[in-house]
Amino acid sequence: MDKFLERFDKTIIFVVIYTLVFVVFFKTISYTLPFVLALIFAIAFQKPTNFLIKKFKLKNSMAAFITTTIFSAIIILIFVFAIASVTNEIVTLTKNAQTYVTDISPKINKLMTNLQSFYKNLDPSISSTIEQNFSSYATKTLSTTVNISGKVMSYILTFFSYIPYVAMVIIFTFVSTYFFTKDLSTAKVKFADSLPTHQTDKILNAFTHIKKMLGKYVLSELIIIGITFVETIIAYAVLNVNYVLLLAIITAICDFLPIVGIAIIYIPLAVIYFISGNYFTAVGLLVAYAVISIIRQIIEPKIVSSTMGIHPVAALAALFIGLEAGGISGIFFCMFLVLFYKIFKNLDIL
């Protein structure tokens, strides 16, 4: 009984401390973002840096400079290519949005005419109400589309106005990455020397486990989003959907959204193509949505549980409870709670 109470007390303390750290971290992330990213990159660059040091007998500073420069150049090239492609598609879509609405309006009217044949025997007041609702909906849709087009252009201009800030963040991130990468090995030794002798191994093991588990969690999420992204690109390309890259990126991002997920993109697209008369693409989008959703529901618990060493039921519970409690932030809170609890449990801290 005493052991149970002791373990219960430790668990409560752990949850309280974890909650405080989680809240403080995400509340201050806007100020610490370059340094958080730099630390993540430095940890990721540690292995190639150590390889250069051992293979070519380089100094830490030179090896860190080489790895940071190469990987930073690759990341920047990918980022610039993606931004250029997506911006081009956004501008094209914005220019053509009103044209699409104008072209689709006659088809909506034709659809309404066809629908009238189904309810022509209804009471005239009901028929009139339905027609007015359809007309009102079409007007609102056109107005909303025009407003969205204007807002998209406004957001693009706003984004470009933030380029100096983004550039500053990028510069700070990569400069900090170099220094973190160069000093990480030395910092580990200094940190280990500063610890109490009888606690050194235990604390270092905790940090090692945390690093590995966090890396596995990030990897698992990237795998899931990557699979959705690739499946979506293939589906859009096969079905000849316009603005493939832009819509695929938006769909992958929407995969994070609770409840609606990728449906917020697939279903409206299917409706648009159906109204346009392209029934094959409309049906294909619905089929692709169903297939991708099923695949995601199957692979997500398996990937998360296998990469993190967490039981699939625990992963499902964390996803469901987090989703219901706080949406995306709730998912992160519960997943990291389970993750850190397992780490400390394995280390006999809890």
UniProtKB/TrEMBL annotation:
GO cellular component terms, semicolon-separated: membrane
On the tree of life, the source organism's domain of life is: Bacteria
The entry's localization annotation reads:
Membrane
GO biological process: what's one of them? transmembrane transport
Task: One Pfam family, please name it.
Answer: AI-2E_transport
Q: Which InterPro entries match?
A: AI-2E-like, YtvI-like
Q: Where is the signal peptide?
A: none
Q: Which UniProt keywords apply?
A: Membrane, Transmembrane, Transmembrane helix
Membrane topology for this entry? Multi-pass membrane protein
- TM ranges are 12-29, 65-86, 159-180, 217-239, 245-267, 279-299, 319-341
Similarity-based family: Belongs to the autoinducer-2 exporter (AI-2E) (TC 2.A.86) family.
Per its UniProt record, what PANTHER family does this chain match? TRANSMEMBRANE PROTEIN (PTHR21716), TRANSPORT PROTEIN YTVI-RELATED (PTHR21716:SF68)
The name this protein goes by in its record: Sporulation integral membrane protein YtvI
Q: Which organism is it from?
A: Clostridium acidisoli DSM 12555
